[in-house]
Amino acid sequence: MVKIMARAATCQSTTAAAGSTSSGSLVPVKRTRKLTVSQHTISSPLATQIPQAAGAAYALKIQALQNPQVDPRIVACYFGEGAASEGDFHAALNIAATRSCPVVFICRNNGYAISTPTLEQYRGDGIASRGIGYGIDTIRVDGNDIFAVREVTKEARRMALENGGKPVLIEAMSYRVSHHSTSDDSFAYRARIEVEDWKRRDNPITRLRKWMEHQGLWDEEKEKEARSQIRKDILTAFADAEKEKKSPLRDMFTDVYEDLSEESQGQMKELGRLLDEYPGEYDLSEFEGGRKGLKESKE
Ligand SMILES: Cc1ncc(C[n+]2csc(CCOP(=O)(O)OP(=O)(O)O)c2C)c(N)n1
Ligand SMILES: [Mg+2]
Q1: Under a CB-based contact definition with an 8 Å cutoff, are residues 298 and 247 in contact?
Q2: For a tag site, which of 106, 247, 259, 291 has the least CB within 10 Å?
Q3: What is the pTM of this model?
């Protein structure tokens, strides 16, 4: 798992990796490779996945009605409390409630939407109270307790399949100790002491480690060994990923729309013209197929 993630991160931090399924349709860092479980790709605009999840759950409901032989399934939809500030969240919860869709909405309330603290996002009782407002069974859980989250998620799945399906909302309470991203310096908008306090007082990783140590499942030696092995695995994955070629140039344009738009065709042509006019300016050897990789089709 670590290897796959490191590989995806390295390839996609520069461009969609060669062989990626996303082509030009997503921001590079979004993980989209080889989705083997029924997993939807990540998209950048906040909250778009929430109505999509309600729709997918409605489809599962209809599927189950048409074919009772199929194993009953639910949709699990993850988002942050900031995403719950979008209109899409409300539309999704309401349609899921009124259509009784088997979907578990899992909101991680970590106190911040980048620099906006929850105090500036809502005046009600968090996200949970909204579920109740839509007539949805709602569970609030300590999001820093891995076992509680697991238990609640299992129970929510069971409930979501009751009586032909219904939505459930989980609000997992946590705190974002890290910056939002590598381009964020969170100490510009929150006190260092607030973060240090949370790290010391209620860190989910430390809590799990302590529990495992108490059960005799973990110790300092195992910790050291795991850290060193994971570090090695990640470095190997990075080295392997860096050897991989970048996607062919055409991938910048394809898969945005079903067919290449007239504008995209024009842009591809223009890029080709620039590459031919200034061959010394661009190193195309790192892209699959080099200059030929700009051709519209792979043939
Ligand atoms: C529609 C939209 N507006 C703004 C952004 C920029 N943006 C990216 S992440 C983010 C904060 C998300 O906060 P939250 O949902 O709480 O998730 P967290 O990162 O805290 O897990 C914002 C505002 C965006 N991606 N999409
Ligand atoms: Mg948040």
Answers
A1: no
A2: 259
A3: 0.83
